[in-house]
Amino acid sequence: MPRKLPPLTALPAFDAAARHLSFTNAAAELNLTHGAISRAIRNIEDRLGVQLFERGTRSVKLTPAGAIYAAEIGTALDRIGAATLVATAARSANVLTVSTSDGFAGRWLVPRLYRFHRDNRDIDVRLATSGVLADFIRDGIDIAIRYGAGGYEGVVSEFLSEEDVSPVCSPELLKGEHSLRLPRDLKHHTLIHDNFRIDWATWLQHAGVEGINSSSGVKFDSATYAVEAAVHGEGVLLGRSSLVSADLAAGRLVRPFDLALKSRSKYYVVYPEGALRQKKVKAFRDWIFAEMRADQPDAHRRSPVPDRPSRPRDRG
């Protein structure tokens, strides 16, 4: 007997709208227009003869029938996605696609990847860097390193590492007439900013320093460029421990002060349910945990502080 099915091509639009409770956000996720999302959902409702959403002037919410349908459709799409991963695993068994931020990739992951290749010569790594959350199915991602609060929906999320933030600079800035000896000496130096959630105003407040314009200096959207600027002596950066550890170890950067702030956000290794059954995913997962254990920063004084509000982005 033939299955009674809704318009299958419209289901991703319904699923996204149900998760976001927003046609606009669903459209952004799927790279469609608001009108396309609305038409897709209307098409499903017409086929089923059931209203799935209550539409307000500026908001939408699921009807009771819509909530039940959304839960079942979401589960079905997850199973289809998992089946797709299994079906395509053999074709790309030796290619591993890793999603992370450009900062974590450039400053931590890439300098260490040669060790993974040395021990896993049959696996080719492809890096996908972006400032937004990657979709494992749509973007062909095998495993991701994400920076945030954890608890990502529909995937396995394992805690990888915490993040400390403290001023770092070139050793050259510890010399000369305005050498960095005390936090108040920062008034003689350029402050380097990236798009991290702990900023100079927060650090200076915890250090008890006043009279410094915390918004002055050089600003970078990329953490990679911000670290490079600090290495070349262009100023003082609030360095994220994972992104500056190699430069600190090599002596390209130093910590002039002891005070470090501990971010509420953390690094997580994220992958779809069942992904560890693939040799390449398990090999990378085990390797990155081993690397992080071997690369823990030196113990120094830390103060827990809340992250400042930010747009939801995948920072690592």
UniProtKB/TrEMBL annotation:
Q: Which family does it belong to?
A: Belongs to the LysR transcriptional regulatory family.
- Its domain of life reads Bacteria
What protein am I looking at?
LysR family glycine cleavage system transcriptional activator
Question: Which Pfam families would you find in this protein's record?
Answer: HTH_1 (PF00126), LysR_substrate (PF03466)
- Alphabetic keyword roster: DNA-binding, Transcription, Transcription regulation
Asked if the record carries the keyword DNA-binding, the reply is yes
Query: Which NCBIfam families does its entry note?
Result: PRK11139.1
Organism taxonomic ancestry: Bacteria, Pseudomonadati, Pseudomonadota, Alphaproteobacteria, Hyphomicrobiales
Q: Give the molecular function GO annotations.
A: DNA-binding transcription factor activity; sequence-specific DNA binding
Limits of the HTH lysR-type domain: 6-63
Any one Gene Ontology BP term:
DNA-templated transcription
Q: Where is this region: Disordered?
A: 296-316
Give the organism, scientific name: Mesorhizobium tianshanense
